[in-house]
Amino acid sequence: MTDPNPPYLYPPYGSTPLRAPSRPLVMPSYGPDAIELVSPVFGHEELGLLDNDLTRQHSGDPIGERIIVTGRVLDSGGRPVPNALVEIWQANAAGRYIHLREQHPAPLDPNFTGAGRCLTDADGRYRFVTVKPGAYPWGNHHNAWRPAHIHFSVFGTAFTQRLVTQMYFPGDPLFAYDPIFQSIPDEKARERLVSRFDIDTTVPDWSLAYQWDIVLGATPTEA
User: Fold this and answer.
1) For 13-38, what is each residue's pLDDT tens digit?
2) What's the CA gap between 150 and 172, in Å, rounded?
3) Per-residue DSSP letters for 86-136?
4) Where in this chain does the record put each Intradiol ring-cleavage dioxygenases domain (predicted)?
């Protein structure tokens, strides 16, 4: 399998020249197993009952289209990965993040923080309830807008085992204009970042649903 991940340096994505390594990477002499023996780990007891429902974390309902996002975390052989910590963060329905440096002139939502987490079950499945994020301008180039997306972080048994990536929504017209999405060299790999509408999980009169699986080693990392 070819590497699905974007290059460290991708000039159309303006931030990469500032953070791409200028020298060849040096691999450590110790293997990953050794460092994982002494690295921090997360505690399952820290998860709250509403951590995976971003629409119920405040006193009122958030503004926007309620959606359900489900999927499975799988290893490279297609086997489920149970008890993996999955975290998400996203903009609100107006395309605004809660962040001190956020300058997009769109409204904040007092009932939406935009962050959640859960553990995968025995079948590697995760589930979130949230609102569909809006597109937003990001200043990378003239008239630059990010497609609607949700950031995902998947931990293994330690903080050193982490995948950070993004999930997109089908049919977004901004795909062709987004250098982060286009930085992934393989078209089929880019398609693996796009969720699919899921009528079977959609709840009548309540919420649409999208399904998106994360395959370790095959799902591209965040650019």
Assistant:
1) 998 988 888 888 776 655 555 545 55
2) 13
3) EEEE---TTS----TT----S---TT---EEEEE--TTSEEEEEEEPPPPE
4) 69-97
Query: Which one of 149, 168, 192, 210 is the catalytic residue?
Result: 149
Question: Exactly one of 97, 126, 168, 210 is catalytic; which is it?
Answer: 97
Say whether 99 is catalytic: no
Which of 25-34, 35-44, 127-136, 179-188 shows the lowest per-residue confidence on average (mean pLDDT)? 35-44
Please calculate the CA angle 186-72-85 and round it to the nearest 5 degrees. 105
Do residues 175 and 147 make contact, with C-beta atoms less than 8 angstroms apart?
yes
Please say if 97 is a catalytic residue: yes
> Is 30 designated active site?
no
**Torsions phi, psi for 166 (to 5 deg):** -135, 145
162 bridge partner residues:
155
In the annotation, is 149 catalytic? yes
Residue 220 has pLDDT above 60, yes or no: yes
Query: 146 catalytic, yes or no?
Result: yes
Smallest Cα–Cα separation from 146: which of 170, 173, 164? 173
